[in-house]
Amino acid sequence: MMEVITILAAGTDGSDSATARAVAKIAINPMNNRGNKMNSAKPMTGAEVKGYRTLSEKDIADMNSIKALSRQFLSHIERLKSDGADGRWLAIARTDMQTACMAACRAVARPDDDC
Fold first, then answer.
1. In a domain, 26, yes or no
2. Is 115 part of a structural domain of the chain?
3. Given a cut of 50, is residue 19 above it in pLDDT?
4. What Å distances lie between residue 100 and 47, 50, 106, CA to CA?
5. Cα separations in angstroms, 82 against 15, 19, 38, 66, 70
6. Average pLDDT, stretch 78-82?
7. What is the distance between the alpha carbons of residues 58 and 47, in angstroms, rounded to a whole number?
8. Among 1, 59, 67, 70, which residue's Cα sits nearest to residue 40?
């Protein structure tokens, strides 16, 4: 079953308040590569983990949209694999996407430097 999510980007409306606008709608497959349901546990706020700040609702939404884009990309990689694309390069692409997702989420979460 595919889910459709809307990606929001913060913008400004000329005043001091931030507004959000939809920049993309993507379909994601909530199943991982083995056909199991992806983990949809409630995100941690950071208050429970030493070295992390408390995440705002916007931070959580940003991280979830990053993860949704990553899942969409990884799903596409699996389709390419079944179509006979070079598995070695697809494995590299998969690893690099996982690294990019982790780095982008870390950029949003902004943990202490020693974490």
1. yes
2. no
3. no
4. 24, 23, 10
5. 50, 41, 21, 25, 19
6. 96
7. 16
8. 67
Enter the pTM of the model. 0.59
Number of structural domains (the chain) is: 1
The range of the structural domain enclosing residue 73 comes to 3-109
| Contact predicate 43/60, CB 8 Å | yes
Tell me the mean pLDDT in the region 2-17. 47
Please indicate, yes or no, if residue 114 is contained in any of the structural domains. Answer: no
How confident is the model at residue 50, as a pLDDT?
81
Reference 26, options 59, 64, 81, 72; nearest CA is: 72
Write b or e for each residue in 60-82: b if 16 or more Cβ atoms lie within 10 A of its Cβ, otherwise e: bbbbebbbbbbbbbbbebeeeee
